[in-house]
Design a protein that fits this description.
This protein is of the alpha+beta class. The protein contains three helices and seven strands. Helix 1 packs across helix 2. The chain is globular.
């Protein structure tokens, strides 16, 4: 099983961060080119990354302003079968977001890309919450040619 974990502090409200993680409009401000669907348990969120790929995530767990759990139900390997957990810890002056991305069927080598890319997207989330402007695909920082 492969897994990566990252944490970032965001100056903002837990409610605002939570919305940015489950609302299609928010997701397209910091992560994907566009997003559709419903951020409710049992529903699906589809995230499109330009002409590159569309990833479908089943919303498998939510705890208002504290936790978002998504499972990739459609997309290329090693995305397929991936589970994302965004845990929010509101400490008053900031919200810590801890992301855990795991996939039982993947190995560490296949997760090298995620290990480098997730911090960039989490910083995009931080910038979106703090300034109103994130860096969703295709405007995120690239980590290799054709990224």
């Amino acid at each position: 099983m492969a897994q990566v974990r990252h944490r970032v502090g965001i100056r903002g409200s837990a409610a605002g961060v939570y919305r940015a993680l489950i609302d299609p409009g928010g997701l397209s401000e910091w992560w994907a080119t566009s997003a559709t669907g419903v951020g409710e348990v049992g529903k699906t969120l589809d995230l499109t990354f330009g002409e590159l790929v569309t990833l479908s995530f089943a919303v498998v767990g939510l705890k208002e302003e504290e936790l978002v759990r998504l499972a990739c139900s459609s997309g290329p390997a090693p995305w397929l079968g991936s589970e994302l957990e965004f845990a929010l810890d509101d400490v008053g002056d900031q919200v810590f977001v801890t992301l855990t991305h795991r996939n039982e069927g993947a190995d560490d080598e296949s997760f090298l890309y995620f290990n480098t890319k997730w911090p960039l997207y989490l910083l995009s989330l931080r910038d979106f919450i703090e300034t109103g402007s994130g860096r969703p695909y295709p405007n995120e920082i690239k980590i290799h040619y054709r990224d």
